[in-house]
Amino acid sequence: MLVSLPGRAQVAGNWPPAGMPEVVESRPVDSAQIFTLPDLLTYVALRHPVARKAGLLPERALQEVRYARGLFDPTATSKYYGKTFSGKEYFHDWDAQLRIPVWYGLDVKAGFDRGVGPYINPESSTSPAGLSYVGISVPLGQGLLMDERRAAVRQAQALQGLAEAERRSALNKLLLQATKDYWDWSLSYQRLQLLTQNTDLALIRLQAIRQRVQLGDLAAIDSVEALTELQNRQAVLSQARVQFRNATLLLSNYLWDELQQPRELPATARPQLLPGPTEWRPLSADSVWALAQVAGQVHPELQKNQAKLNQLGVERRVLANKLLPKLSVEYNLLQAGQPFNPEKPASLSGTYLENNYKLGLSFAYPLLLRQERAKIQLNRLKLQETQLDLQQNTRDIQTGVQTAANDWEALREQLALQEQVVRNASRLREGEQTRFENGESSVFLLNSREASLVLARVKLAELQAKYAQTQATLRWAAGGAPGQP
Questions:
Q1: Which long-range contacts (CB under 8 A, 24 or more apart) does 285-288 make?
Q2: Is 70 exceeded by the pLDDT of residue 21?
Q3: Is 80 exceeded by the pLDDT of residue 352?
Q4: How far is CA 198 from CA 192, 210, 235, in A?
Q5: pLDDT(41) > 50
Q6: DSSP state of 266
Q7: Kind and range of the H or E element at 173?
């Protein structure tokens, strides 16, 4: 794990967070430092711009719910109209009202009217003290079981599930790519180490062969053969150094601090080892089946489809309710005087209720319902499309899990075989070295054996890196984060 240098000033005060490794700036250090895969994924999940952007989705969905609930906020309104002309007062009309929407479609309201003057509309005329009222408005047809306000809240709540699924999907893809790039970095480092050892060995052999040429034990052409081989290996090693530096730069793209400033891996940073034989675990059929079942429940793509189905279901209820007639009843209980200062105390007796009220009834119904029926059919088509997407995505995810599991098993077998190939190539190289020391072989054959050995070792490292990437791919295909066990 990377640590800060002694006496190095911390960036931004409390950076890095507690329990989080620090990426130091490029500067010489005494020994190499190990930057592990969990370290990288921690940085990516907490600081990467894509991860932060994905983290905004749930908050955005929460505000959508808040916005939808605002449709049920109480509303206070007041209006005043008055007219005075040539010093003569015509009328004064004032209306103040408080309306409280209720979840089940009805509205409760209370208000105060005062309309006075010689030319006031008789419908709005009241006593000088005014007229208070409290009432209720109830939809008996359209809007009773479901209306736009309740639908907006339900759809916004479904959007929360969609936003969380999109967040997980974006973050999982980011972590998967980061994991693959990390193992590519580890592979490039392992390749660099193998080629460095191979080049050092060629240099030592060249020096030894030159000494034997000077002593007359070998022909001068053997030194030319050894020099040519050294130069070939140096050229390959130079390319490996460039690949490792480029892989390091690519991995640095995932590192950001809490101030959203890019960070760089130090030149001394080294990856963790590629998975060894003890980590080449087999996959049982039961575990693959269990992963497929888990993927069917928690995979973000399926959860997005399910959230869309929920939204369309709410929309269908609203559209079906549109087929009903618009029939609403409004009843207001009246009382002379101001709301808390009536002219006479109110009584809830039958006589008072019969003589002090305002009643309203409204009805509307389109005769052909072409718009309403068309919207229902469009909603039905959208539901079918989303259900088909859900079926196809389910099949694709099941196939993806099985494909990754097959790659896992195939790579495990290839790793076991390649390990044997490396052992055999090592024995052949040791035998050729013994024959060369006894004068029974040539520099060319020894170089060939060593080239076969290093190629076998590089191939083994490539399979190890691919195996580690396949492990991450299987976790991602099952709907989990690649860094999870």
A1: 288/401, 288/402, 288/405
A2: no
A3: no
A4: 10, 19, 12
A5: yes
A6: -
A7: helix 148-215
Helix (H, G, I), strand (E, B) or coil at 333: strand
Please list the alpha-helical segments (H only) found in 438-479: 443-477
Local confidence band at 483 (pLDDT 50, 70, 90 cut-offs): low
Identity at 309, one-letter amino acid code:
L
DSSP string, 197-236: HHHHHHHHHHHHHHHHHHHTSS-HHHHHHHHHHHHHHHHH
Residue with tokens 């983290």: 55
Residue 475 CA to chain centroid, in angstroms?
A: 15
Q: What single-letter amino acid sits at 109?
A: K
How far, in Å, CA of 328 to CA of 188, rounded?
74
CB 482 within 8 A of CB 472: yes
Task: For residues 224 and 244, give the distance between their C-alpha atoms in angstroms, rounded to a whole number.
Answer: 30
* Residue reference for tokens 């959860």: 303
In angstroms, how far apart are the furthest CA atoms of the chain? 136
Residue 167 has phi, psi (to 5 degrees) of: -60, -50
pLDDT at residue number 438: 84
The DSSP H or E segment spanning 438 is none
Q: Which amino acid is at 434?
A: T
| CA gap 370, 376 in Å, rounded | 10
Mean pLDDT, all residues of the chain: 86
Please tell me the pTM assigned to this model.
0.81
Of 330, 375, 371, nearest to 151 by C-alpha is 375
pLDDT in tens, 99-136: 999 988 889 999 999 889 888 888 888 888 888 889 99
Q: For residue range 434-471, list pLDDT tens digits in order.
A: 888 888 888 888 888 988 999 999 999 999 999 999 99
- Any idea which residue has 């489809």 for tokens? 305
CB 127 within 8 A of CB 334: no
Kindly state the DSSP code that residue 256 receives in the 8-state scheme.
B
Is the bond leading into 16 cis (omega within 30 degrees of zero)?
yes
Letter for the amino acid at 171? L
Nearest to 126 by CA among 87, 84, 95: 95
Tens-place pLDDT, residues 169-211: 999 999 999 999 999 999 999 999 999 999 999 899 889 888 8
Q: What does the CA dihedral 468, 471, 473, 474 come to, rounded to 10 degrees? A: 170
Torsion angle, alpha carbons of 224, 437, 196, 29, to 10: -120
| Alpha carbons 243 and 191: distance in angstroms, whole number | 10
**Do 225 and 447 touch, CB atoms closer than 8 A?**
yes
Check pLDDT > 70 for residue 212. yes
Distance CA 433, CA 237 (A): 23
Burial label, 481 (beta-carbon count in 10 A; 0-12, 13-18, 19+)? middle
